[in-house]
Amino acid sequence: MISAQEALSRLREGNRRFASDLPSEKPFRNQEVRIKLRDNQEPFAVIIGCSDSRVPVETVFDQGLGDLFVVRVIGNIAAPSQIASVEFAVDRLGTPLIVVLGHSGCGAIRATVEELLHPAENPSQNILAVVNRIRPVVEGLLRSELRDDTEALIDEAVRANIHASAEFLRNGSPLIERLVRERGVLIVGAKYCLDTGVVEFFDGMSVGKSL
Ligand SMILES: [Zn+2]
Description:
Elements: H1 4-19, H2 31-37, E1 45-49, H3 57-60, E2 68-72, H4 80-92, E3 97-103, H5 107-117, H6 125-142, H7 150-171, H8 174-183, E4 186-192, E5 199-201
Parallel strand pairs: 1-2, 1-3, 3-4
Antiparallel strand pairs: 4-5
Helix pairs in contact: 5-6, 6-7
The chain binds zinc ion (ZN).
C-alpha cells in the first residue's frame, strides 16, 4: 500500500486532470481491472462526501474501479455508521488516507441555516437528525457578524462542517486514533468548488489553512 502523502498526491493529480478537462487516466469499464479486483480490493483513500449529484467522488478525482472507498451522505456528516465505514476501510483494507469532502453550495448546510433562521415544522425526523448534527457548527457562526450575510454564512458553515466531521473522525473512534498513531493514517478536510471543479485540501489542524 502507498503512503498517505502519496495517496494525497494521487487525488490532487486526478482532480487537476478533471478540473482541466484533460483526458482521464482511469477507464471505468475495463475487464482486466474488474478481474484483478474480483477477489481483493486495496482502495488508497476513503472519502466521506456529500450525496449531491454534482460531486461524484470518483469523477472529480478521476479515479476508477477499486481506487476509492466512498461514503456519501447529505452534508458529509460523520455519524456512527459513516465512522464504521471509515474504520472498515482503514483497518481491514489498510487504506492510509481519510478525506472529508464538502462542497460549495451544499443543500444540507443551506437547509440547516434556514432551519435555524426560520424554524419550521420539519417533514422528516431522519432529515432532522442530519440537520441536528450540522446545527452546532451553524449556531456558532450565527453569533458572528456573518449572521447578516446568508451566502457568506453558508460558505463558512461548509468549511466549519468539514472541520467538524474531520474532528469526529479524529476523536470519535479509538480504532482510528490508534491507526493514526501506529500506521500514520492521515485525516484531511477538503472542499470542492462547484464553479471550477477544483478541490482545495485543508491541513490536519486547521480547515482555514490550505495544504
Ligand atoms: Zn452537499
